[in-house]
Amino acid sequence: MTTFYDIPSELLIPALAERIATTDGIDTPEWAEFVKTAVSRERPPSQENWWFLRSAALLRKVAREGPIGVTHLSQAYGGSKDNGAMPNTPGVAGRHIIRTSLQQLEAAGLVEKVPTKTVETEEGEVQLYAGRRITSAGQKMLNEIAHDCRDAANEQFPGLDKY
After folding, report:
1. Cβ of 68: how many Cβ atoms within 10 Å?
2. What are phi and psi of 133, to 5 degrees?
3. Which of 105, 91, 98 is nearest to 134 (CA)?
4. DSSP labels for 95-107?
5. pLDDT in tens, 58-107
6. What is the H or E stretch that residue 128 is in?
7. DSSP designation for 87
8. What would you measure as the largest C-alpha separation in the chain, in angstroms?
9. Pick from 78, 132, 124: which is nearest to 103 by CA?
10. What Rg value do the Cα atoms of the chain yield, rounded?
11. Residues 110 and 59 sit within 8 Å (Cβ to Cβ)
12. What's the pTM value of the predicted model, to 2 decimals?
């Protein structure tokens, strides 16, 4: 059986974005057409379906590296921060975009939070989380799409057929 590890991301993510666009509970927010994706960007994304592409990329990254948190994801999707005359430093992506997308994926049942421990505070007990990981439904969706993309991957990259 083909898994999402076997298919290159440039083939898997657009196909996954099409499936996510038809999934209930995952919609583009009203503010998404006006927002930049990172501090290092000058303009909002020009693609019509950029929200679904970002959600698909987040789902794939959570599946590969999970449990993973919003901060680590924002560092992964960030660019280079221009510091003027000083050397450039790594910049971070917009955490609100990542957090909202993960919440929508969680509501759709594709991602879940990983609880670690409970801490006693002044307000009472608070549950801490290690990040998010993919659920079995999300894994199934990824593997189905990877299986559908297998023929296109074999045509584009002939060496993949041995895997």
Report:
1. 20
2. -135, 165
3. 105
4. HHHHHHHHHHHHH
5. 999 999 998 999 999 999 988 888 888 999 888 888 899 999 999 999 99
6. strand 124-134
7. P
8. 60
9. 132
10. 18
11. yes
12. 0.88
> 27: how many CB neighbours lie within 10 A of its CB?
12
CB atoms within 10 A of CB 93: 22
Q: Which of 94, 101, 85 is nearest to 40 (CA)?
A: 94
Helices 50-65 and 136-148 sit at what angle, rounded to 10 degrees?
110
- Using alpha carbons only, give the angle 103, 104, 106 rounded to the nearest 5 degrees: 65
- The stretches of 4-94 forming alpha helices (DSSP H) are 9-21, 50-65, 70-77
Domains of the chain: 9-162 (1.10.10.10)
What's the pLDDT score for residue 10? 92
CA distance 135 to 114: 11
Q: Is 60 helix (H, G, I), strand (E, B) or coil?
A: helix
State both tokens at 41.
Answer: 């960007």
Contact 52, 17 (CB under 8 A): yes
The total number of residues shown for the chain amounts to 163
Both tokens of 28, joined, read 């583009």
Average pLDDT, the chain: 90
